[in-house]
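README, section 4: Worked example with a bound small molecule

Sections 1 through 3 covered apo chains. Here we extend the same pipeline to holo records, where the ligand is supplied as SMILES alongside the sequence. The molecule in this example is zinc ion. Nothing else about the input changes; the structure line simply encodes the ligand pose together with the chain.
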Amino acid sequence: MGAGLPFAYRSGVRCFDVNDLYNLGMYSGRSDTQPELAFRMLFRFAGRSVVDLLGPRVWDFRVRLECAGCEGAAPWRFEAPDVVRFGGRVEDVVAPSVGEGSASYAARVTSVGARTPLVSPVLRKLTGEYLEAGYRWQMVPVAMQADYELVHRLGVTSCIAASLWLAERFRAAGYRAEAKRGWFCGVLGGALDLPHACVEVEDDDGVLKTVDIAKAQLAARLSPDTADFQDLCVGSVYNKVIASTASGGAPFASHGCGSELPAGVRADIRAVR
Ligand SMILES: [Zn+2]
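The generated complex, written as structure tokens:
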């Protein structure tokens, strides 16, 4: 409070914003705060051989949808896993039908990682410039990330904001590019709900590539021995990510009942061994 961290009084109790607290811990330099420990554990995979991130991986994919303030039975719209364009499969789908209050989606999803680095010098240059610009990765509320110009003006970045920003730069350079949301899987058993997005861009060789710029940045910040993973983030697809049909600034789900509140989406994605 002395240093100016914003808070609000609710029922006589001082409440801080959860993202503020997370960022405070993450950049405290103490090395023993929950965010620092969680991110180090979460990104341990990034320091290992990237071979495990290539090839197929099967997931038991379940999502629970909640409509707070539901006003009655209506159809659900859910931006489902969409991995076929990267060689994956979606099977045994149980999609939500018309209903009230809550619903669920389940499927068996096979994600496939493949090494397809960016070949276009223009795309590589734009990506490199972004990585060198020094934006600081932070937890940013999803709704705020849609205003990616504001986020970057603050010297900050995050998966969705970074992807929206970079997709726009790619398009301005004449490429077909779109920021897409997806799921970053195998993340502390789902305990940390980390919003994921990346840029999908059609490269000079005609291949659809993904640029996961924020993960590259985060890995670089967390550990110096993650160079191979950082390379993988620039064009290649890795199998811990499940692409969806949702565009960068869009929600994963909505309920047609007319409730003004956004639908809650809680994913439980487990590796099938
Ligand atoms: Zn509803």
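What to look for in the output: The two ends are 47 Å apart (CA to CA). Residues 67, 70-71, 74, 255, 257, 259 surround zinc ion (CB under 6 Å).

Section 5 describes how to batch many such records.
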